[in-house]
Write a structure and sequence with these properties.
With 283 residues, the chain is α/β, with parallel strands linked by helices. It contains 7 helices and 11 strands. It has a 9-stranded mixed β-sheet with strand order 3-4-2-1-5-6-7-11-8, sandwiched between helices. A two-stranded antiparallel ribbon has the order 9-10.
């Protein structure tokens, strides 16, 4: 039988559960790799670990510092430094001086000892809907896991203020159970957005497509004390005509949204016609 082997020489523990289980193995605890883009000490990640550890063996591999909006970047031109992070004198997880995608790669390949059953990225402070999926380090961690053949989920709470992540973490635990019990869902990646509302005010859970747009971007021009020009990028969310069939619209109306996502960017509906156009024009 295979075993999750503790990583040697780092002071950490890795996964320590004996036995080889699948997602469908009801008699075994799942092995879950946790990461985020807000940094290893973020409250959303802590809430996720506390809740999911009740019925799964969890290992945190997360960025040492905040990596919001780094997209799917990976580190190529400097070494990936990894240290054992502690909280209250106890081992917390592995802090990686890299991106969320780096964390998933090295977490699965080196730090976990054995491939996890599931990767969960979050809980992000701020929603990840519409075009933001392209920029999101949280979502990119989930798509990286899917590229490596591991079922994954990105989770975001729709607020940039300090918030209580307790309900969001409980919902993620329900999602984990759902994925574990449905073979059709395994091997996929999911993007989950949760309204920052009291539980009783959330209208329900919907499965929707990714929306378009969501932010009108602007640049604020400033001048430093040495007369150098610099800019801050900023923006505001669009709210007109919410489409309840999209993540943007449904979330804005108080629904938890779930979107199955993929890393294949091919426009399949254009392949055949585009080939004909290329052929006719002797490109």
């Amino acid at each position: 039988m295979k075993r999750f082997i503790p990583l040697r020489g780092t002071g950490g523990s890795g996964f320590t559960v004996q036995g080889c289980s699948s997602l469908l193995g009801a008699g075994f605890r799942m092995r879950i790799l946790l990461t985020n883009d807000d940094g290893i000490y973020a409250r959303g990640l802590s809430a996720l670990y506390e809740e999911l550890s009740k019925e799964a063996d969890c290992l945190i591999v997360a960025p040492e510092t905040e990596q919001s909006a780094v997209g799917h970047a990976i580190t190529l031109f400097r070494p990936l430094m990894v240290r054992s992070a502690t909280k209250g004198g106890n081992f917390l997880g592995y802090a990686v001086c890299g991106t969320p995608a780096d964390c998933v790669k090295i977490g699965i390949k080196e730090l976990s000892g054995q491939t996890p059953d599931l990767v969960v990225s979050g809980i992000n402070r701020g929603s990840n809907c519409g075009n933001n999926l392209i920029y999101s380090g949280t979502v990119s961690a989930a798509t990286e896991a899917a590229m490596m053949g591991v079922t994954s989920m990105a989770v975001s709470l729709d607020t940039h203020q300090e918030a209580d992540f307790t309900f969001a973490a409980r919902f993620v635990r329900r999602m984990v159970r759902l994925i574990k019990s449905n073979k059709l869902l395994q091997g996929s990646a999911f993007n989950v957005n949760i309204p920052c509302l009291p539980e009783e005010k959330i209208k329900g859970v919907v499965v929707v497509r990714q929306g378009k747009g969501n932010v009108i971007e602007t640049f604020e021009k400033r001048i430093d004390p040495r007369d150098n020009v610099y800019y801050w990028i900023s923006g505001e969310k669009t709210t007109a005509n919410p489409d309840l069939q999209t993540d943007i619209g449904a979330l804005s109306q108080g629904y938890i949204t779930i979107t199955p996502i993929q890393y294949d960017l091919t426009r399949y509906e254009l392949l055949d016609e585009f080939q004909k156009i290329v052929g006719r024009n002797d490109v």
